[in-house]
Specification:
The complex is a heterodimer of chains A (215) and B (412). In chain A, 44% of the residues lie in helices and 12% in strands. Chain A starts with a strand and ends in a 5-residue tail after the last helix. The chains are: A alpha+beta (215), B alpha/beta (412).
Chain lengths: 215, 412
């Protein structure tokens, strides 16, 4: 197995060109037509975007439903969605639309936000660069993860799931190439990362790999 | 003053600084020119003051140019500023002509530099017309709008849009400010320099000296608003809030601001404030010189509560400054203040003098909560609004614009 190449990334948000949504119906209609990058940004790139952490929900649609529409039921339904279990973003979109359509059929009045509380659809461009650092053996992985930037953690643990092998983080995929590393690979894949900030996740990955020590 | 990235070790992690160097290395030697309309006064000048040397430190050939103009030009661009922020104004044909002529005069001087640059960043509307006056430009041109143009006076935006539309990209502080334009619009909130005279740590003796200098009573809670004397900063609303609080408890207020050379309305607003404050020894209206950074720093540190009761605000760097000094901020529920002030976490958003008075009283009655919110406020700024994040996003933007790929993930 070759060396693990430590990459880093920097993300820059931009407008999507879609009009802002002021109520639940507009949210539904915009999600139906937005690009996959927009969907991905509001579900998966939130750990890297400057905002005050909303500890309840990690996707922007759930947070908006709670904070601006005041719809707690919808917030709960959207908040529990794990975007990484879907085989592709179109399946994620289908699931979100299903929930929104169901909610729209239940409410008598379409929930709307106050002026200033509109939902703005954004997306991001990610610039990925090679840090020049390499990891040559699984033993060195925990220490290397412990010194990685938030950008590296995001790229190798979250963004990796969009790349081949789809749905798997880079660390696990790399460990799988070594004989006897399967337990550590499985342990990494079992980390429930949804409620971690990036610095917290870094600590958790080091802790998981440090348990008993990778061989 | 020369600045180096290494000076920020300890304030941010070594990995963050390493990341900036890596992004910079791959742009080494690229010529970047920033253009704005004032060397001193206002948030843009403060940002460029640190951004230029730090861009140089990571390997870019960065420089800062300032356009010059007469009083007629600044009167027109002040109207732009007001109109873009939604204040009803009318701009005559003659005034548009003045705008164009002053930009033409500046283009004669700046054209050789701008046309050769790899990246040109034009800040705000004043120099926006330069793009059309540099037909042999080689690099990528970016328009950076610092003000809140979410609901502009249509005639002003209609007139200005053709000057902006030709850029390769634009930058806004928040998505709320973006307008339909035929190019990508990136979102980069501004930031503060934690080592600048306005934000660096000060010793207690200096705080005591400033307290004496301005006759501030150490036994009375102190409210401080630092901002230019501008209607959108609502200094009269702050006075009203102060008076409502004063009815129930002793308190003192500092309204401190400097003039910016591109703001001809400042004196008029200052006169109104002085008239409204006359006769109250606990109101201190301070017109400070543009280099009084340490004094402003000291006043913010002496404050029990920092206020920024703007009715329109691009971002509100004075909010960031207050938060960085560990003060909860009571801010107008508008623009970039919403990105920074989070109710019960870093301060309170308010919509009226009455709302401001209510939250001032609340915070003055909850000292422990005030301290806790102040601690959170500082960490929030450390993570999101220091210059290192800001510099990284500019470098990222240059990589994106310099890339031949049009993809959501770019490998460099």
């Amino acid at each position: 197995m070759g060396d693990f190449i430590i990459q880093d990334c920097s993300l820059l948000a931009k407008t999507s060109g879609l009009a802002a949504a002021i109520n639940l119906r507009e949210l539904r209609d915009r999600i139906a037509v937005c690009s996959q990058d927009v969907l991905y940004h509001h579900f998966c790139e939130t750990p890297l975007v400057p905002s005050f952490d909303n500890p309840d929900y990690r996707n922007d649609f759930a947070a908006w439903s709670l904070l601006q529409l005041g719809d707690r039921v919808l917030a709960e339904q959207l908040g529990i969605i794990n975007p990484y279990i879907f085989p592709d973003l179109e399946k994620l979109r289908e699931q979100v639309l299903e929930i929104l359509d169901e909610r729209l059929s239940e409410v008598f009045i379409v929930p709307s936000c106050q002026p200033g509380g509109e939902f703005f659809f954004t997306e991001a461009v990610t610039v990925v660069f090679d840090t020049g650092k390499r990891i040559s053996s699984p033993k060195a992985l925990p220490e290397a993860i412990g010194t990685m930037t938030n950008g590296s953690i995001y790229y190798h643990f979250f963004e990796a799931r969009r790349r081949e092998p789809v749905g798997v983080d880079d660390f696990s995929a790399w460990l799988d190439g070594f004989p006897g590393q399967e337990p550590w690979s499985r342990a990494l894949q079992a980390v429930d990362f949804v409620f971690f900030t990036l610095p917290e996740l870094r600590g958790e990955l080091v802790r998981v790999l440090g348990k008993g020590g990778v061989a | 003053m020369t600045k180096f990235l290494s000076s920020y070790e300890g304030l941010v992690s070594a990995t963050v600084l390493g990341e900036l160097r890596q992004l910079g290395n791959r742009l080494a030697g690229k010529r970047v020119v920033h253009v704005n309309s004032t060397r001193e006064g206002g948030g843009v000048a403060e940002i460029l003051d640190w951004m230029i040397p730090l861009m140089q430190d990571v390997g870019l050939k960065a420089q800062w140019e300032v356009i010059t103009g007469n009083s007629d030009f600044y009167a027109v661009t002040k109207k732009f500023h007001n109109g873009l922020q939604g204040f009803p104004v009318t701009i005559s044909k003659r005034e548009w002509q003045t705008y164009q002529e002053v930009n033409e005069e500046n283009a004669v001087r700046l054209r050789p530099i701008l046309e050769e640059a790899d990246f040109v960043v034009i800040h705000d509307p004043q120099p926006a017309a330069l793009l059309g006056l540099c037909p042999s430009r080689k690099g990528k041109w970016i328009w950076r709008g610092h003000i809140d143009i979410s609901r502009p006076t249509r005639s002003v935006w209609r007139g200005l849009r053709p000057f902006v539309a030709g850029y390769e990209a634009s930058i806004f502080s928040m998505c709320q400010f973006a307008q339909p334009l035929p190019h990508p619009q990136f979102l980069i909130p501004p930031s503060i320099d934690p080592l600048s005279p306005k934000n660096m740590d000060l010793n207690p003796e200096e705080l005591t000296r400033v307290r004496h200098q301005y006759n501030l009573d150490p036994d009375k809670p102190l409210l401080v608003q630092v901002s230019r004397f501008d209607r959108f900063k609502d200094p009269l609303g702050v006075l009203e809030a102060y008076r409502l609080v004063r009815k129930v408890q002793p308190v003192q207020l500092v309204l401190a601001g400097g003039g910016a050379t591109d703001d001809p309305e400042g004196q008029e607003v200052l006169d109104e404030v002085l008239e409204a404050a006359a006769g109250d020894p606990d109101i201190h209206v301070l017109l400070l010189p543009s280099d009084a950074h340490r004094t402003i720093n000291a006043l913010q540190r002496l404050a029990d509560i920092v206020i920024q009761k703007s009715t329109r605000e691009g971002f509100g760097l004075t909010v960031t400054e207050g938060l960085w000094k560990g003060k909860p901020v009571i801010g107008g529920d508008t623009g970039g203040i919403r990105l920074q002030v989070v109710n019960y976490h870093t301060g309170f958003l308010v919509n009226s003098p009455e709302g401001a008075a209510h939250r001032i009283r609340f915070l003055l009655h909850h000292e422990a909560l005030r301290a806790k919110m102040g601690g959170r406020a500082r960490e929030y700024v450390r993570e999101h609004f220091l210059l290192t994040r800001h510099l990284r996003e500019y470098l990222t933007l240059f990589h994106i614009l310099g890339s031949r790929e049009d993809a959501s993930v770019i490998y460099i």
